[in-house]
């Protein structure tokens, strides 16, 4: 029988995101905290009789050849051939796409990370977690985090990761109905790139001390995204009536932390119909690693 594997690809929130500089190649230096949450895309892997890698679900706006899932699978396949001299079986990959594209939730990066983990297992590739992280980074700056799989304080372009405790809470997330291209935000002339460095202990102290869940720091990309995409600003303002609402990543999604599921449910019931709102619980570990 052909082997089949069903695997989740969870979303992340950037609890804060500071732009602290710019590298010579134009990429930005960041400090951020990544938090996994329990809302996920779902990927299904079925081994084939030949060596082809095929995406068997249509993803509107993303041609198969540029899909991060397919690109990640091909990179790993080539590396397994290089290391072992054998060609692993091809794979059909189906995807239930739940996470919005251009949402700041890292959906495409998480799909790619899950693909690397699943195929490394199915193909018995034997790559270490660090080797998979190094392979993923050129495909997307968030991919190493998803492979790391734990709440992380991150520096560099997001690849220098340190495990940290995040708040154990519920989140309300609003999709404001726009898709934000990450490159457009980073290239804006209005982006500030000189936020002073913080240290990880500041982040840890903040969450250890606070009885309520106001966030640490800020998201430097939020002002630029709000200016270019007004629904982002509207969602921050609306959700801000209930707590410290902020944008994740380069947008568009906006989130706010709550102590309990009941509190989230009460606010969720009031989310304007124009937006898609949902709740999610903070995850300590990636479900593929537990
Ligand atoms: C904003 C974050 O989501 C925070 O977690 C990530 O840094 C973005 O990660 P991503 O969507 O995987 O982005 P990538 O596909 O790596 O980069 C898209 C584009 O954004 C810009 N970019 C991205 C990351 C970074 N640290 N500096 C940048 O300037 C680059 O122009 C790049 O070509
Ligand atoms: N499997 C995939 N799923 C989603 N997007 C993909 C995928 N493969 C490639 N992409 C491309 O990547 C772009 C960004 O998608 P993604 O869902 O990762 O955005 P995001 O949540 O804003 O990410 P980030 O927080 O990393 O900026 C999409 O607009 C799409 O063109």
Automatic annotation (TrEMBL):
Keywords: ATP-binding, Isoprene biosynthesis, Kinase, Nucleotide-binding, Transferase. The keyword Nucleotide-binding applies. GO terms for molecular function: 4-(cytidine 5'-diphospho)-2-C-methyl-D-erythritol kinase activity; ATP binding. InterPro entries: GHMP_kinase_C_dom (IPR013750), GHMP_kinase_C_sf (IPR036554), GHMP_kinase_N_dom (IPR006204), IspE (IPR004424), Ribosomal_Su5_D2-typ_SF (IPR020568), Ribsml_uS5_D2-typ_fold_subgr (IPR014721). The active site is at 12, 142. PANTHER family: 4-DIPHOSPHOCYTIDYL-2-C-METHYL-D-ERYTHRITOL KINASE, CHLOROPLASTIC. This is 4-diphosphocytidyl-2-C-methyl-D-erythritol kinase. It comes from Pseudoduganella buxea.
